[in-house]
Design brief:
The chain is globular and about 50 Å long. 41% of the residues lie in helices and 16% in strands. The strands form two sheets. Strands 1, 2, 3, 4, 5, 6, 7, 8 and 9 form a nine-stranded mixed β-sheet that branches. It has a two-stranded antiparallel sheet with strand order 10-11. Helix 5 crosses helix 7 and helix 7 packs parallel to helix 9. It has 15 helices and eleven strands. The longest helix has 25 residues. Bound molecules: beta-D-fucopyranose (FCB). Beta-D-fucopyranose (FCB) binds next to loops.
């Protein structure tokens, strides 16, 4: 690969990410059912109705997986804690075995010299809370605050960094408006409520961590470059609105104490009562901010109901996901976030990577090229003023890619889902060489 540590500032952190439901195996260890289990059990939602009951069996193989992370030369490892594993009913009783697991996992990282980067919620909501309306229910802020306390009382003294929720856009919009992720709703009121409550829950969680003295607390949002599909004014307006919903809504709440005007033109009538009063809670002071970035979208206008836009197929080379490869977007978004929102706060790219139809022994050149081009974009963003302190590969392992099942392989390590054998890909070895130099 083309990058080396010396391209980046002293102390720049390289890490790889995973998430609990995507790798652990949720069918054992006393974990409660999650809305991903029921979503996957409903025909038509997930490719081949695949689910996370076994996944990569990381729950039983985490030592081997962390050995591989250490041997790659990574500085840190980004993981998430499963709410339903720790609190099977979402509230009340704690599953001691589940909490012990994260305790041992954190210690195992530290033993290997990997800094633990914790995310509290990466999408597997306990079904008992889904029954109560899940992210639509304002009480979720308190439930999530209590879960945060339970987890961080146990591991908060040893994590390097902590973020409450992975990708509010996915939790809110993708899951409640587009219906592609659990709970699979397509309802504007549900979406508006979930989008707001994901941020109030974030705020409560940060407060809970501050009360425990947890250090280095941040947030992780996802971003996509949004471009008009043609030169019409309508397409320009549509791309602007897509940008508002995807890129400006959540970070606006977190850093500006307001939601963008253009988005509120559509969402305001559907917001929960009193939403205007919640920005003190939402805007808790943060120590860092993380961006997940994969692709761009070309957006066209339509005559349908708000938001009246379509995703248009673009001409650039695509990954196995059908996502266009557009590293310029990462550069632009890092500089834009720095200048308009975070203004000097440490930034991290908390996810970036590509899926490919990998087999063991494949040359893996596309992934190396993708990663090189996005690391180069990070480098130019730093040159242009972004206070970027680290970069995280998605993902350490091939895993459960949500509605797309086990077919989309994002890992630096190949996983055979029959035998569960791990085989590092060529990109893994290339990164190891680059990081060792
Ligand atoms: C992100 C998710 C992660 C994975 C990648 C491909 O949106 O955080 O779990 O699905 O996309």
């Amino acid at each position: 690969m083309d990058f080396s540590r010396s391209d980046f500032p002293q102390g720049f952190l390289f890490s790889a990410a995973t998430s609990s439901y995507q790798i652990e195996g949720h069918g054992f260890g006393g974990a409660g059912k999650t809305h991903w289990d029921t979503f996957a059990a409903t025909p038509g939602n997930v490719v081949r109705a695949e689910h996370g009951q076994l996944a990569c069996d990381h729950y039983n193989r985490f030592e081997e997986d962390l050995d591989l992370a250490r041997d790659m030369g990574l500085d840190a490892y980004r993981f998430s804690t499963s709410w339903a594993r720790v609190m099977p009913e979402g509230r009340g009783a704690v599953n001691a075995e589940g909490l012990d697991f994260y305790d041992r996992l954190v210690d195992a990282m530290l033993e290997r010299g990997l800094k633990p980067q914790a995310t509290l919620y990466h999408w597997e909501l306990p079904v008992a809370l889904a029954d109560l309306g899940g992210w639509r229910n304002p009480d979720i802020a308190h439930w999530f605050g209590d879960f945060t306390t339970v987890v961080m009382e146990r591991i908060g003294d040893r994590v390097f960094s902590a973020a409450p929720i992975n990708e509010p856009w996915c939790v809110g919009w993708l899951s409640h408006f587009e219906g592609h992720h659990a709970p699979g709703l397509r309802d504007i009121r549900a979406a508006a409520h979930a989008m707001h409550h994901v941020l109030t829950a974030h705020g409560r969680s940060v407060q809970a961590m501050r009360a425990l003295g947890v250090q280095n607390v941040g947030a992780v949002c996802n971003f996509e470059a949004s471009l008009p599909a043609d030169s019409s004014p309508a397409a320009a307006a549509a791309a602007q609105l897509y940008d508002g919903i995807y890129n400006r809504f959540f970070i606006g709440g977190l850093f500006q104490g307001a939601y963008p005007q253009d988005v509120m033109e559509g969402l305001a009538p559907h917001m929960p009562k009193g939403w205007q009063d919640d920005f003190d809670l939402i805007g808790q002071k943060l120590d860092w901010f993380g961006l997940n970035y994969y692709t761009r979208k070309l957006i066209g206008a339509n005559d349908g109901a708000w938001p009246s836009y379509d995703y248009i197929d673009g001409p650039l080379p695509k990954t196995q996901m059908g996502w266009e490869i557009y590293p310029e977007g990462l550069h632009q978004l890092l500089v834009w976030v720095e200048q308009n929102y975070t203004k000097g706060l440490p930034l991290f790219v908390t996810e970036n990577g590509m899926s490919n139809a990998d087999t063991v022994g494949r040359d893996d050149v596309e992934r190396m090229a993708y990663l090189d081009s996005h690391l180069a974009a990070c480098k130019t963003a730093i040159r242009d003023g972004a206070n970027l302190r680290g970069y995280t590969f998605w993902s350490l392992l091939d895993n459960y890619e949500w509605a797309l099942g086990y077919e989309k392989r994002f890992g630096l390590i190949h996983v055979d889902f029959e035998t569960l054998e791990r085989s590092p890909k060529a990109s893994y070895y290339a990164i190891a060489r680059a990081l060792a130099e």
